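Anyone else keep sequences and C-alpha cells together like this?

Example one:
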Amino acid sequence: MERLRGNLPLLLIWLAVCAVLILVTRGQIMTGIGWDPDDQLRMVQLRDWLGGQSWFDTTQYRIGEPDSQPMHWPRWIELPLALVFLLLQPVLGAAGAETAAMVIVPLVTLGLAMWLTVKIAEPLFGRSIALLAATLTATAVPVVAQIRPMRVDHHGWQIVLALTALWTMYWPERRKGGIALGLALALWLSISLEGLPLSAAFIVLLVWRWVFQTEEGVRLFWTLLSFLAASFLFYFATQGGFDAVLNYCDALSPAHLLACTAGAAVMLPSIRWLPANRVLRLGSLAIAGAAALAVLYGMAPQCMGGAFNTMDPIVREYWLVNVLEGLPIWYQNGRTMVTLLGGSIIVGLISLLYILRTRPAGMDRSRLFVLAYAFLWALLLSLFVQRATAVAAAFALPFMAWAVHQVFVRARALKRSLSRILATAAVVFLILPGPLAVALFNAVSDEEEPVAKSPESLACRSNESLARLNSLPRSNILAPLDFGPRLLLLTPHSVLATSHHRNDRAMADQIRILTSAPDRARDLLEAHNIRYIIACDAEPELALYAKKQPKGLWAQLVSGRKPEWLQPVHIRDNGLRIWRIVPKGLRNRM
C-alpha cells in the first residue's frame, strides 16, 4: 500500500500524458492502421500468428510469391499485442480489439519508460526532479514518435530496454545488477540488432572498470554469463532449433551466438582468476576479441561488413540510401534536424556541460558519470544513425528536468515582479524546446515538405483507395514499396515487395520492372505472376525511378505513354492509378 501511494503521482502523470496523446493521435486511431510500414507489417504478422501460423515461422507468404519473404522480427513484440487483443476481442470484436491493442500497448510501454526515468533520475536529483523528468517525456519528440498510440513496432521497447540497462548500472549489488543487465541486453538484441552499439557501450564501461578496478569484475562476470545464457534461451524460444548454417546478418544468429561463446570462454575465466594486472587483463581482452572475430568470420564472413553487406546493389542505390532513419543527421533536412536535436537532447547536453563545469554539491559522482557516459554515447551514435536519437533523448531527460527545475527556482526568486513573470514564462522554452524550435524553423524556412500534400495525392495514398482494391479478384500486385503493408492489411491481395530488406531479391526485381524498358519489364512481371500495377503519380519512390531512368516503364507511364499490354482499370471513388497486365498471347481488349 505504501509503495502504491509513493507511485501515485507518477501514475497520475502517466494518465494525463496518455489522455493528451490519445487526443493528439485520435485521427490515426480512427483509421485502425499503424503509422508506418513497420507498424502495419507488424500487425499483419500478428494476424498471421493468431490465424494459425507457427510461432517459429515469421515468413510473410503474401510478399514475393512464390518465394515469400522471411522476416527478421521475432514474435516478442507481438506477445503483449496478442494478450490485449484476445482479452478484448469478446467485448469489442476483432477490429475494435486490434485498435485497442495498438493504443494500450504503446501507452503501457510509455508508462514503463517514465517509471524507469524516475528510477534513474531520483538517486541523482531527488524525487521532484525525477517526476518532472517523467513528465517531460511527453515533450521529447524522438521518444514520443516511437511510443505513441498506433506505434507498435519494436523501437518503443528498445527505449525501455535501454533505460532498463542503464538503471541496472546503479544497482549496488553487483551480482544482481550484472544478471539483470545481461538479461536486458540479451532481450534487446533478440528483438533487434539495432541495439548492438549501445549494448556494447555498457559492456565497454564494465570492461574498463574491470581493468582498473578489481571489484567491478563481479558485475562484468555475471553480465557476460547471463547475457550468453539468455541469448541462447531467447534464440531457441523464437527459432525452435539451432541451425549453424542459417546465419542472417541482421538478427541474432548462430554465428553471433558462437562468437560470443568463444569470447566468453576466454573472458569468464580471466575475470575469475587473473590477478589484478592490467597487462594480463588487456591481453585476455585481445585474445577474447580475436577468438570472437575468428568464429564470426569463419561461420559468416558475409556479416563482417554489416547487416546490409549482401544487399543487391540496385536496392542499395534506389532504396537503402534513401531510408533517412538509418542515415547520419547531416543527411536529414533542416526540419528533421531541428525536431530531433532541438528538444531534450540539446537542453540535456547544455545542462550536463553546466553540471560538469559547476560541480553542484550533493550529486552522486559515480551515478552522474554512468548517466553522462550513456547519454554522450547515445548522442554520438545518433549523429550517425538518425533513429538512435530516441534513446539519446530518453537518456537526456534527467538532465533536462534538472535544468528546468534550476531555472524555475531562480526565476521565482527574482524580486521584481515583471522580471519574475518574464523569467518564469521563459521556462516554457526549456519545457517545449523541440516544438517551439520547429515552429520557429517553419516560420523562417521555405523548405518544402518531402511528400506532396495536394488533395489528389492524399486521396491516392489513402486507406480508402487501397481498401477499394477488394473489388478486384485476389491477385499478385506490384505497388510502391511503402504501400505493401497497408495493402496486406486492408485486402486479401499479395504484393511483390515491401520496404523490408530481407527480400531484397524481390525488391530488386520491382525496381528493375519500373526502371527497365517496357519489354524487359513485362518479362519480369510475367515471371512473378503480377496481374496489376497500382501507383500514385506523386509518390517520391516512383519519382526517383522516373528521374534516374527516363526511358523506364514508370517514366513512360507517368508521361502518358502506356504500353499496349497494360489495360487501365477504373474503380469508383478511387484515387489510385491501376493497370491490368494482359498476359502474353491474349489480345488486348481496350
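And example two:
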Amino acid sequence: MAINKEVALTFDNNWSGELLANLLDNVQTEKAAAASKKSEEERLRDAVSALLEKLGAKSVQDDSLIFAGEKFVLPAQYAGADGIERARQFLADYENQQRKSFNFSKTYDYRPYDGAHAFMEVMKKITGTTGFGVTRHTFFGSQPPEFKVIQTSPTTSIQVPWGLVAFPMYEATFDIGGVRDNEKGVLFKLSVEAPRKWRSHIQAIFDLVEREVKENSIYRGRAITGQEWPEFLDTSVVNPDHVVYSKEVLAQLSAHVWAPLRYSSQMRAQGIALKRAVLFAGPYGTGKSMGAMLTAQIAEQNDWTFIMCRTGKDDPATVLQTAALYAPAVVVIEDLDVHAEGTSALEISRLLEMLDGVTNKGNEIVALFTTNHIEKIQKGALRPGRVDAVITIAGLDAEGFKKLITISLGRDFLETEVDWETIAEAYEGFLPAFVREAAQRAQRFIMDRNHGVPGVVTTEDLVLGANSLRPQLDLMEGAKEGAHRVTLEDRLRDMFDGSLRRTTVPDFGDNLEVEEPTVLNGALK
C-alpha cells in the first residue's frame, strides 16, 4: 500500500488540511525509522487509519473519554473509598461497548450505481482493495457475492461490488444497495455492521463517499436516459452542422433553451431564473428529436445533466426526480400529447406542477417538451407562467432548403449553379424529412440511369425529386391519426399500466429496500 500527495489531496477539505500535512510528515518520518519492526505497508495503513479516525471524530461527538495531558484524572463523582473500583468498572463497560457490533447506515441523494461506484473508489484509495465479498443467507437460500457491471459512459463500463462486502481491517461488513424514497425514487444506501470502536472511521468513510460521488458522479453533467437506473446517451453521433431549422426557429431555440445552458453564471449574476419550461411543437419529420439530441450535446459541453424521457419507456415523474438529484439539468419529455391526452394519462398541468415543485426547492431545471399535436394540449397549460415559450416548427426557409440539400447530397454532387429560388418554390411546405428524401431521390434517379454510377445533381433533378414526392406529402396531410373509440376497458388498462410503471423496480434481490407506496389522487405513486 502506498500513499502520496496525490492520494492525500483526495482527502483534503476545509477542515482536514492540517491533519493531512501532519500525516505526510509522519509517514516520511516512519519510512526513515530503521528501528521500526513494522513493515512499510503496516505503518502506512496505521497512518491512514489514524487520519480516518480524526476525520470522523469531527462529525462523531463522544465525550465519554478524553485523552489529554499526562496524568490520570477522574471525575469528582468517583471520589471516595470505592471510587477506583467504580472507575475501573466504567472502563471495563466502556471497553465491552466498543467491542460490541453496531449497525450504521447512510442514504445518499444519488442513484444507487453512482453511489456504488463512489464507494469502490474511496475504499480502493484508503485500503488498497475493494473488499471481500460475503455470502448473504436468506429464507430463500444463499446469495453469493456479486460484482455488477455498470456503465460509466456510452462506451465504457466497470465492475463494482454489490451486496455484502467485508473489510477485515475495520472488522466491518458493508451492505451496498438501494432504498426507495417516495419523493426522490431509488437512492443509494450504504449500511455497515462493525464494532463501535470503529465509529469514527465509519463516519469518515461515509463522508468521503459523499464527497466522491458529489465531485466525481458518473451521471452529473452527462446525457442519460430517464429511468431510475440510468443508461448513457451517445451525443457524439450528432453533427451540429446537420441540424437544420429556419432562422427564426434556430434563434428561438438558441435564446430560450441553449442560452441558459451556455451562459448560466452570467444569468445567475443578472438574477435571471434558470427554471424554464419550453414547448417544442411541430408535425412529424420536423427534427424535434434531432434538436433534443443537439441540446444534450450542448448540455454536456456546459456541465449540465441531460435527461431524456422516452415515450413509452420512461415515466415523466421519475425523470423530474432524477433531474432534481443531478441539477442543474435539462429535461426533454418527448410526445407531450401522449401524456396529456385522456383522463388516465399524466396531465400536462400536473406535470408542470411537478416541475414547479422540484424547482421551488432551488433546483435549476430547463424542461423541453415536444409535441406533434399542439391542438391536444389544454389551453390553460399554454398560458404565460406555466409554459415560458412555445417554439413552433413550420417548413424550412430558402436558406434551410439549401443547407439541408447540400448536406444530404454533398457539395461534390451538386451543380455549381443551382437555382435555389426555383428549388424553394418546388419544395414549399416540405418538412426536413421530405427535403432529404426528395434530394436523395434525385440522386437515385441519376444512378438508375447511369447503371449505379452517381452523378452531379442539377436543379431539374432536384425539382423532379420534389414533384415525385409531393403526392405522398398530400396523402400524409390528409390521413387521420390511427385512433379508436376509447372504452372503459381502455381507461382501466391505462390506469393500471401507468400505476404499475411508476411502482415497479428492477429485481435486485434483497439489496433494494422498498417503502410502502403512498396513494396520490387515486393512483399509486
